[in-house]
Fold:
Amino acid sequence: MAKALAKGSRITGAQRTTLASQYAKRYAAGESIRKIADDAGRSFGFVHGVLKEAGVELRGRGGATRGVKKTASSSAAKKTTAAKKTATKKAPAKAAKAPAKKSAAKKAPAKKTTAKKAPARKR
Structure:
């Protein structure tokens, strides 16, 4: 664990560079930015900024992921292909070929409620 820096002290030059390399090693090892910040006595924003300045590729929210990242387009294509296969198996042949009808009906706008008037006074 690195020694805690004085809170609010300005870190520049060589000290900032060495600090960035230490933070980068810890972050690459799987530690979170919050954990590094707590140990160093600095804010999340400070550690995040130092890592960004050092050119570290930051992980997405939720921490380290298991396995290889999947591209959105390939996983979406697999899902749509699987959905088409199951739809054609379950539906009869004629129904599968006919396009689905879309309703053209629009919702009526909500009616405005008026405040109830006070009963008329007797004269």
